[in-house]
Design goal:
The termini are far apart. The protein is mainly beta. The protein is globular, with a radius of gyration of 14 Å. It has a four-stranded antiparallel beta sheet, with no helix packed on it. Helix content is 0%, strand content 54%.
Length: 111
């Protein structure tokens, strides 16, 4: 087996996700940061800042060029992995209803 310990966040990690081919991991933490890690070396290849509260959810897009993060600061942000720049910021109201057609489901998220 293979065990990799990734050190770098200053507080608890809330969410992790692999990219589609397993070469990178993205993590979101209570330290308000998003980090991208190389799974071959364990190196942190990007540290992304911009949230003002704990990062609760993270994911890669299909080609691993962007990361999406959701935070307790009531924002969902999309980031360019190569530059760390914010590509999109979506403010979330106290209640939101999401429709996911592929799953034929609706989700209601309340604060």
């Amino acid at each position: 087996g293979f065990l990799l310990t990734l050190l770098g966040h200053n507080n608890g990690v809330q969410s992790v996700a692999f990219n589609h081919n397993g070469t990178c991991i993205v993590s979101g933490s209570q330290d308000q940061k998003v980090k991208v890690w190389d799974t071959r070396t364990g190196d942190c290849v990007a540290t992304i800042s911009g949230h003002t509260d704990s990062v609760q959810a993270v994911a890669f897009n299909n080609d691993s060029t962007r990361v999406v993060s959701g935070s307790k600061d009531k924002t969902v942000k999309v980031w360019d992995v190569s530059t760390g720049d914010e590509a999109l910021d979506i403010g979330i109201p106290d209640t939101i209803v999401l429709e996911i057609p592929e799953l034929e489901k609706y989700y209601c998220i309340q604060d």
